[in-house]
Design brief:
By secondary structure, the chain is an alpha/beta fold. Helix content is 35%, strand content 20%. The protein contains 13 helices and 19 strands. α12 packs parallel to α13. The longest helix is centred in the last third of the chain and has 22 residues, at 396-417. The structure holds 5'-deoxyadenosine and iron/sulfur cluster. [4Fe-4S] cluster 1 binds at residues 54, 90, 124.
């Protein structure tokens, strides 16, 4: 889908052609307009950002806010106060779409109270033609719509909207160039997501991601390393490498580099203390990666390995390209190499054609793999995916019953597994002052589990040894210990 215009394009001949210079030009143009308008109003212009969905979206929104801050907008967490509202949407499951439509009604009311308000929608949901059609038809008050491939163009699109006064829609079908070096407003000073690749080539039959995020594109290792070095120089101690399928990183580069090799190079960065990554696809998980992890001082002992289903028959219909036995074999290898590894997963219940027998296979894998935690989802039919046209959709009441049984098992095992580190001393990255008790701080173990212990804000962003004194199910209470102890 390309942009459809019913107005004359303004003259942008002064704008540089090359990126990111072009976007910096538009950031300065928007800034002039923002300054002028806030001068007239006698107050700053405010932006409210909402992000739903995965870590990839969270990172995208940091980029959007980086651009808007440089253009002069000030952030607000009150939607009612905003002059610009920007929703970064998800469409992995249908309920996410419904929520956005629900909120749009509310935004329409806000716009009536504040005519200044501009509404921008972006992200995965906007990549779906039927969504854009619905917005054009029934939500005319929306100002700006763009997709996942052109978020870097926010300043240019917003400028176009501000000077034409027309709804601007720009959604690209295919992959775009990867534009480096645009501003980013990071949520945390001490940890950051880092995109290593975009898109997905797997076409799992239930999943809409390959349609809305396009084909796999890996960033150059040099660009990734440069970004991480810069982040470290700014105080970041933990990075989360992001991709839909990080295990296939680098395959499409001019000089291919494996994910394991990339990790080896990132490990060398001085000052970086923790490396995380997500998400892995079991079919691409190499022995080399397990070995790099095992030997690493920095890669966290946490692996998110989506199972989706434990039935080989359903896995085949899902186009996952591994069997129940192969999945369990990988789990065995990971746990043998790293006995302290925390293993988490995603599971879908009620995929078309799933019988009680298939479901029991999933329960069996959950019992055998003993995941520390699992995200469980009810299958959601996504228009345009192969599974949506499969005939034998499972009746709702059966799905609900299976979902409840699965959740109970996952929670029971999670509870049994959690607490296994009680009594030990672990390194903790302190993230914030405890929300319930300001004499306590909250931090994260390498395996991603939370710990609360006495401390103050001065500890935020540091990695310190903490004795896990008590397990409380899914988190620990602890005590900071001094080095001598
Ligand atoms: N229905 C339900 N869950 C889904 N996921 C992806 N697509 C669907 C769908 N159509 C889940 C998968 C994936 C996670 C991010 O979302 O489990 O791993
Ligand atoms: Fe979707 Fe499968 Fe790609 Fe994950 S690997 S984003 S589930 S298609």
């Amino acid at each position: 889908m390309s942009q459809k215009k019913d107005w004359m394009l303004p003259d942008f001949s002064e704008a540089p052609e090359a990126e990111p210079d072009r976007q910096y030009y538009f950031i300065s143009q928007v800034k002039k307009l923002v300054r002028q308008r806030s001068g007239e109003l006698g107050r700053p212009l405010k932006v409210f950002s909402l992000v739903v969905g995965c870590q990839m979206n969270a990172r995208d929104s940091e980029k959007l806010l980086g651009i808007l801050e440089q253009a002069g907008y000030v952030q607000t967490d009150q939607e009612e106060d905003a002059d610009l509202v920007i929703y970064n949407t998800c469409t992995v499951r249908e309920n996410a779409n419904q929520k956005v439509y629900g909120r749009l009604g509310h935004l329409n009311n806000l716009k009536k109270q504040n005519p200044e308000l501009k509404i921008a929608l972006c992200g995965c949901m906007m990549q779906e033609p039927h969504v854009v059609d619905a917005i054009k038809k029934s939500y005319r008050f929306v100002d700006l719509v763009f997709g996942t491939h052109n978020i870097y163009k926010l300043a240019e699109l917003l400028y176009l909207r501000l000077i034409t006064g027309q709804m601007v829609i720009e959604v690209w079908d295919g992959a775009a160039e990867i534009v480096e070096d645009l501003p980013v407003d990071r949520k945390y000073p001490f940890k950051s997501g880092v995109n290593i690749m975009f898109g997905c080539n797997n076409f799992c039959s239930y999943c809409i991601v390959p349609y809305v995020r396009g084909r796999e594109r890996s960033r150059n290792p040099e660009d990734i390393l440069r970004e991480i070095r810069r982040l470290v120089s700014e105080g970041v101690v933990e990075v989360m490498l992001l991709g839909q399928n990080v295990n296939s990183y680098g395959k499409n580069l001019d000089t291919p580099v494996s994910f394991a090799e990339l990790l080896r190079r990132i490990e060398q960065i001085e000052g970086l203390e923790r490396i995380r990554f997500m998400t892995s696809h079991p079919k691409d998980l190499s022995d080399e990666l397990i070995e790099v992890m095992r030997c690493s001082q920095k890669i966290c002992r946490h692996f998110h390995l989506p199972l989706q289903s434990g039935s080989t028959r359903i896995l085949e219909r899902m186009n996952r390209r591994y069997t129940k036995e192969q999945f369990l074999e990988i789990v065995g290898k990971l746990k043998k190499a790293m006995p302290d590894l925390s293993l988490t997963t995603d599971i879908i219940v009620g995929f078309p054609g799933e019988t009680e027998e298939d479901f029991l296979e999933t329960m069996d894998v959950v019992r055998k793999a003993r995941f520390d935690s699992a995200f469980t989802f009810i299958y959601s039919k996504r228009t345009g995916t192969p599974a949506a046209s499969m005939e034998d959709q499972v009746p709702e009441n059966e799905v609900k019953d299976r979902f409840d049984r699965l959740l109970a098992l996952v929670q029971q095992i999670g509870q049994e597994e959690s607490g296994r580190d009680a009594g030990t001393v672990q390194k903790v990255l302190v993230e914030e002052v405890n929300r319930q008790d300001e004499c306590m701080v909250t931090g994260r173990l390498g395996n991603n589990v939370l710990v609360h212990f006495p401390g103050d804000a001065s500890l935020i962003g540091t990695i310190i040894p903490v004795k896990l004194t008590e397990s409380r199910g899914f988190y620990y209470l602890g005590e900071q210990i001094t080095e001598e102890e």
